[in-house]
Amino acid sequence: MQIPDRVMPGLLKNVVERLPAKPPAWLLVQTLNQLLKREILLADMSLLAGRLFRVEVADLGLNLFFSASEQRFMVSDVSADVDLCLSANTADFMKMLLRQEDPDTLFFNRRLKIEGDTELGLIVKNLLDSIDWSTIPMMKSLVKQ
């Protein structure tokens, strides 16, 4: 399934911005923790522990805050003092997950923004690129299309 280059309509952004961010952040954290548990996400958690992250889905106005310990990821409260922020539009995040675009290409084309700790940003970007998303049941159906 080829993901088209488009941003979500402004009306959808107006709705999503008003919704609580914790449920989607919880879903992201649960997914990351399952990937860790199944050893699909091969993260050196000591490099991520004690750090605060924000994933911004820019075209939806959605900000997901989470942190890491030595063992797992956890939902965090909204904070301006994040160690790392990854920001992209929905289509670009989907392209990255489906391996239609790699994080480097998105970054150098200024479609993936990485702000904060530079070293941490490289670690997370490389970690995202190392995940074989086709081994995840939910993603298998998307990859096949």
Describe the structure.
The protein is an alpha+beta fold and 145 residues long. It has one domain: Nonspecific Lipid-transfer Protein, Chain A (2-Layer Sandwich). Helices cover 44% and strands 17% of the residues. The protein contains 7 helices and 5 strands. It has helices at 10-18, 22-37, 45-48, 90-97, 103-108, 118-130, 137-144, and strands at residues 52-57, 62-68, 73-75, 84-88, 113-116. A 5-stranded mixed sheet has the order 3-2-1-4-5. Strand 2 and strand 3 form a beta hairpin. It is globular and about 40 Å long.
Keywords:
SCP2_sterol-bd_dom_sf, Nonspecific Lipid-transfer Protein, Chain A, 17% strand, ubiquinone biosynthesis, alpha+beta, 145 residues
Brief summary:
This protein is α+β, with helices and mostly antiparallel strands and 145 residues long. The protein has helices at 10-18, 22-37, 45-48, 90-97, 103-108, 118-130, 137-144; strands at 52-57, 62-68, 73-75, 84-88, 113-116. Required for O(2)-independent ubiquinone (coenzyme Q) biosynthesis. Likely functions as an accessory factor.
Poorly predicted residue ranges: none
Number of helices: 7
CATH architecture classification: 2-Layer Sandwich
Specify the helix fraction band: 40-55%
> How many distinct domains?
1
- Report mean pLDDT, rounded to a whole number: 85
Straight-line distance between termini: 4 Å
Placed side by side, the strands forming the largest sheet appear as 3-2-1-4-5
Q: What Rg do the Cα atoms give?
A: 15 Å
Percentage of β-strand residues: 15-25%
Using the coordinates above, name the CATH class.
Answer: Alpha Beta
Major sheet attributes: 5 strands, mixed
H-E order: HHHEEEEHHEHH
Based on DSSP secondary structure assignment, what is the total number of beta strands? 5
Helix/strand/pairing class, anyone?
alpha+beta
Shape: globular
What is the CATH H-level superfamily? SCP2 sterol-binding domain
What CATH calls the topology is Nonspecific Lipid-transfer Protein, Chain A
